[in-house]
Design brief:
Jelly Rolls; 2 domains; alpha+beta; 3-stranded mixed beta sheet; 7-stranded antiparallel beta sheet; Arc Repressor Mutant, subunit A
């Protein structure tokens, strides 16, 4: 196991210290994992003195543990965690975790897992500059409670699409720094909006770990499958439970029925294809399982309040 202890600060220094412990050189603000640890990269960006982010996209060959120790900079840490274990392991993770940056925190990532994480550090100064005193106090109270009793949020569809954009970026993108700043602001705004409106889906404390992992597996199937909604029987068989239990648990965890979640996922994917100019309206509809263009347009408008052609016009 590789352990790295640190006090919270901006992430470019964090990454330099991590690379130094492993006796590995940095290339700018990019750390390439040495072969004995795994494959992939960790990127750090200090967007300014009070806002910093860390992006992990890798597969681990060894257990990796990060130990945040008390006494660092004042502020908040907002982590978006997507961890898929190896084939013979359990422990899938797909959550959002807000914590007080000065509180102790241990994060263990097991060998064999595929890790996609975005962690944003906001200093108290920048938080106070942009948030109302009431909201700042609410966030502070919630974050401090998490040092005693973890309250994780599910990664929602809007978060998932922005995370895909972040992990899909290339290192040589000439607008990379601008895009990452935009994505970080998007993630922050979506989280805060849901927090204020209490729309964020908190992982139920009464939910068994195996049931949560089963729901995350089903969610992965629904969000990655575009060609057609899988049968309830197939999904229930995948997680070894009855269809009624599956339907109830999924709604409890994600706030949507299975079909609604699937439909939102595929329509979001179609919108993404249209925005980026990957295909025509007909191709986008066909790609996500619509054989009738009119039906696709109606479903698209119900979801986004605009027709597919409007997206192309405004691109």
């Amino acid at each position: 196991m590789v352990k790295f202890a640190f006090q919270q600060g901006n992430y470019e220094k964090w990454l330099a210290d991590f690379a130094s412990q492993l006796e590995t050189r940095l290339e700018g603000n990019v750390f390439t994992l040495p072969a004995h640890l795994g494959k992939g990269k960790i990127l750090a960006y200090d967007l300014n003195a009070n806002l910093s982010c860390l992006i992990m996209n890798c597969k681990l060959e060894k257990d990796l543990e990060f130990q945040r120790q008390p006494g660092g900079k004042h502020g908040f840490s907002l982590a978006f965690n997507q961890v898929e274990p190896g084939n013979d392991q359990k422990g899938s993770r797909s959550d959002i975790y807000l914590s007080d940056a000065q509180d102790e925190l241990h994060t263990r990532l097991p060998a064999g897992s595929t890790v996609k994480r975005v962690i944003i550090f906001y200093s108290t100064e920048i938080a106070a500059q942009y948030l109302t005193p009431t909201l700042l106090e609410q966030l502070g109270s919630f974050a401090r409670q998490n040092s005693v009793s973890e309250n994780k949020f599910m990664i929602s569809l809007p978060h998932r699409e922005t995370l895909k954009d972040i992990f899909g970026m290339t290192e040589n993108d000439p607008l990379g720094k601008v895009r990452r700043l935009s994505y970080i602001i998007q993630l922050s705004e979506k989280f805060l909006h849901s927090f204020v409106r209490q729309e964020q889906t908190t992982i139920p404390r009464t939910l068994k770990k195996n049931d949560l992992e089963s729901m995350q597996h089903v969610e992965h199937i629904l969000s990655s499958r575009l060609e057609g909604f899988p049968s309830l029987e197939y999904l229930a068989h995948e997680v070894f439970m009855s269809t009624s239990k599956l339907k109830n648990l999924f709604k409890q965890v994600y706030g949507y029925t299975l079909y609604d979640y699937y439909n939102k996922s595929r329509l979001q994917r179609a919108k993404e294809m249209l925005v980026t100019g990957q295909c025509s309206i007909k191709q986008a509809g066909s790609e996500i399982g619509f054989s009738n263009l009119s039906h696709f347009a109606k479903a698209f408008k119900r979801e986004f309040g605009a027709l597919p052609r409007d997206i192309l016009r405004n691109r």
